[in-house]
């Protein structure tokens, strides 16, 4: 058993050092409720983590019908028994006394308890009315990266072929849209090339805008164990903050926010200038290198140093390390994805690997990371802005093939334009062309940018909002119907992590009250709507998780994310299998592109590519002439400054992000005593230098304002670079543990009060890490003013 205080303070636990190429040793982490001994556990139910994308396998301890703890699974390829703090303690949220147990409907302006028939009845009446009067485009769905594969697939079928709407996207738009887009741009198709095992082999690991130590704690444990062993890898860290990752790095580059592309172009410049390139690899597997070489020719370290405000010598040093690597592993996450040239920058990391021929062998991988536990499934099932099975909406053959799988006519599946992205869905809801928005497993009233706008959209009289959640979240408060969902541990389904590892998560206990699995809710809706295929049979013929999984397998057959070699039984026998898993690869596939590029062929690719500056989709003919033989595409892009840059009024850059103890809007982790106590309230980070410059000191209550809104927080001086203020985005106006909600919606605690409605033109991912801001003093540290509920209603 773990020492609890220790794992809150030391999220990574004790070292188990290992050398290059050796297997990562096991270490079993567990936590049981106080007073429960291991031999009192009646059943251990297999599952995997739902509080990040790492996919840590674990077993859920059950006693007398209740979850009483968790234990990491030592046999699993992903975590070899380890668990992070959110997983060790987070399960307690399931039994929170304020779980939703009955549907709610709005009556006379208030949400009141109701029953399933009434709630579903209202949704169906609204759906049919909208379909009749305004057609399928009047209905939108906004889902998540936190359900199970079977649920996304069912939702994708009912939305795309049942309703026939193009307006279905996930909060994955805020999360991994750029990961998917960067893979499509370079490799023609989504699908993570690398494997976590690359950490065991790499001699250089480069992390771009990825605070792995706090956001994928177990993966970071693997890195720490390599660092503690023989022949440790060297780390390159690009992050404006002195994160725990930066502390371990051979080179830490702390650029101004939103300048990743300039930095990456300079790294490419140096690598090309010093001829650290793999000509054979480039010739055999890529197109476009000449344009890249020309494009970065003037991007010297000195040029980038001025834009990024980092020493040119540090850029040269980083280029030397990356250029000298024999086995390079790179990871990319939100520090790159949530800025204005997100895809253009993420693609340059792919280019580093293509130029150096570092792909498809042990230690040579690029991880365009995911964040949410099942974001990969949202993408592959087409519950986001993609068609299921990574099919290409511009390729009529792909649409026809999907129509065959669903037994509908191709015209039934909208493909007149790219599937609508989330920011556009909210725009349509704002403008009124969407009259019903069904939100599942996400809390946009805290997580989308510019919250005053989002609140006013969700509160609109004419917009019928359905919220499906565990709790009466900030979003649910604004809904017309609230559906109580079962969650992890209370339902069965599959989830796939960031390195394509598929796990089965089984039902351990009953959900509270009348709460139902999301799958059952979608199936119920499809039955009530009576969706039919072209022969008049039910469009959705499955009835439980396993039959839904089999339906998905048929849809995935022959596509890159091929699940045909898997089954619930196989997943129960083993633990964690990487797709593609087929008859020919029954044990799954560790790495993609081991034998050249496989899915970029014009006939099979998921995307014909986009213009990296405007985001405009290329036509088939353009792609055919650019890349007739289906190679990787080396795409160049020029650095452009952020739209909202600093000014005398707003002299700082605002970046937002995460802390190790909380997950997103804290609906779970805020209800867990150990995690809540570890980080109960919002804070703002400035460098000591910057604080002094603004006349502020540690502990002062400050206001972080942008042109759109403000947050009040205690100031912490940290190792962040000058010119930047950081806010964790976890804190909504819901206050733990009492469930107290201030009467005023704007408590000034959510970082997104100040973020901007703007997105990367290519991936459409919103910018959570570039806005202009100012920090002003509210009260000095020792005046005793509180920063949360006490100040909640008082805005200035
Ligand atoms: N503890 C915890 N873990 C989580 C989550 C959580 O909420 N809490 N959420 C999960 C999810 S859904 C996601 S998407 C991932 C996100 O995981 P990460 O991307 O690692 O997390 P963030 O804190 O959003 O951002 C990472 C870093 O980007 C840096 N950054 C900001 N601006 C820039 C920039 O312009 N350039 C560069 N290079 N860096 C910049 C920030 O300083 C920050 O340290 O975490 C997953 N894991
Ligand atoms: N400023 C700023 N904003 C950000 C980010 C940032 O870095 N900075 N990061 C963005 C990113 S990467 C992400 S992923 C988003 C996350 O943003 P959200 O998705 O809004 O965050 P969560 O709090 O995870 O919301 C998930 C909801 O699903 C509910 N839920 C959990 N399990 C289930 C289930 O099984 N079924 C159903 N129906 N509901 C369930 C939870 O109670 C919770 O209310 O935030 C984005 N917003
Ligand atoms: Mo995310």
What does this structure look like?
With 796 residues, this protein is an alpha/beta fold. The strands form six sheets. It has a seven-stranded mixed β-sheet, sandwiched between helices. A hairpin with a 2-residue loop joins β5 and β6. It binds ligand MGD (2 copies) and molybdenum atom. One ligand MGD is lined by residues 52-53, 86, 175, 208-211, 214-215, 238-241, 243, 255, 257-258, 260, 333-336, 339, 371-372, 655, 657-658, 660, 662-664, 769. Molybdenum atom (MO) binds at residues 175, 371-372.
- CATH A-level architecture of the largest domain: 3-Layer(aba) Sandwich
Helix content: 25-40%
Strand order of the largest sheet: 6-5-17-16-15-7-8
Rg result: 25 Å
Tally the beta strands.
Answer: 27
List of distinct ligands in this structure: ligand MGD, molybdenum atom
**Count of distinct structural domains:** 4
> Which structural class best describes the helix and strand composition?
alpha/beta
Figure out the total of helices.
28
CATH class value of the largest domain: Alpha Beta
Distance between the termini: 49 Å
Shape: globular
Largest sheet: 7 strands, mixed
| Beta-strand share of residues | 15-25%
Superfamily (CATH H level) name of the largest domain: Dimethylsulfoxide Reductase, domain 2
Stated plainly, the CATH topology of the largest domain is called Dimethylsulfoxide Reductase, domain 2
Instruction: Outline the low-pLDDT stretches.
Output: 735-747, 785-796
Domain 4Fe-4S Mo/W bis-MGD-type: 42-98
Region (Disordered): 1-23
Protein name: Nitrate reductase
Keywords: 4Fe-4S, Iron, Iron-sulfur, Metal-binding
